[in-house]
């Protein structure tokens, strides 16, 4: 008994029979599913047991196999391997701490910049309080020095107050002949301070307190207060 054509569903006789894709076709019915171009055994492409020409062959979408059991197994295996590597790295670094990067030049520069910004903000706040006259508990005949001391001690609980110490120092201290080199740039934040650049030599340096010095910048000839942590002895 002769089979039926898979396209027209009519009987296919042996002289016109094409056996392909597990089906039988008339030679004229073996054509592209899209453009109906007649195909042969050399130029057809099969997809889901249907013939297509090269131009209209369906493009496979690879996302359709993303959740196959094999891909899920590989995904789980990669995840477990990542966790194992993370734990090994954690065990190697456990107890070592992360202070190894605390003293890098970049972090030191950021820290110094933040300290400088804090000093500038402190001076701005101090000047605002000084100009605003926030000293309600003044003595009957206050002197300028007593007023400054009162303004500094009034805010002692929540801000450092190095300013009264610096003003109490008065004029430039006597020259001690010490020389320092600047290791960072510094811009004066107050009229009694001095600006300098990285590499400048500061001479006649005198220690005022733990955080401040007094000296003269050899390059510009200017003298005034400077932060002690911005220079190093030479």
From TrEMBL:
The keyword Zinc applies. GO terms for cellular component: cell cortex; cytoskeleton; focal adhesion. Residues 175-234 form the SH3 domain. GO terms for molecular function: actin filament binding; metal ion binding. Its main location: cytoplasm. It holds the Pfam family SH3_1. SUPFAM superfamilies: Glucocorticoid receptor-like (DNA-binding domain), SH3-domain. Residues 129-176 are annotated as: Disordered. Plays an important role in the regulation of dynamic actin-based, cytoskeletal activities. Agonist-dependent changes in LASP1 phosphorylation may also serve to regulate actin-associated ion transport activities, not only in the parietal cell but also in certain other F-actin-rich secretory epithelial cell types. This is LIM and SH3 domain protein 1. The lineage of its organism: Eukaryota, Metazoa, Chordata, Craniata, Vertebrata.
């Amino acid at each position: 008994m002769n089979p039926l054509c898979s396209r027209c569903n009519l009987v296919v006789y042996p002289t016109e029979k094409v056996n392909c894709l597990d089906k039988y076709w008339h030679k004229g019915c073996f054509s592209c599913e899209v453009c109906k171009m007649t195909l042969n055994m050399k130029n057809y492409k099969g997809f889901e047991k249907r013939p297509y020409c090269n131009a209209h062959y369906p493009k496979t979408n690879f996302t359709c196999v993303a959740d196959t059991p094999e891909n899920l197994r590989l995904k789980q295996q990669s995840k477990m391997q990542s966790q194992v590597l993370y734990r090994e790295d954690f065990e190697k670094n456990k107890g070592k701490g992360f202070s190894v990067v605390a003293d890098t030049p970049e972090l030191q520069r950021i820290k110094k910049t933040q300290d400088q910004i804090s000093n500038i903000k402190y001076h701005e706040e101090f000047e605002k309080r000084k100009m605003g006259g926030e000293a309600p508990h003044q003595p009957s005949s206050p002197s300028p020095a007593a007023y400054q001391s009162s303004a500094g001690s009034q805010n002692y609980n929540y801000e450092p107050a190095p300013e009264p110490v610096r003003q109490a120092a008065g004029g430039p201290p006597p020259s001690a002949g010490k020389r320092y080199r600047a290791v960072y740039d510094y811009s004066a934040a107050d009229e009694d301070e001095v600006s300098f650049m990285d590499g400048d030599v500061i001479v006649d340096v005198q220690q005022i307190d733990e955080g401040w010095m007094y000296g003269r910048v050899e390059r510009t000839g200017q003298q005034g207060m400077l932060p002690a942590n911005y220079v190093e002895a030479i």
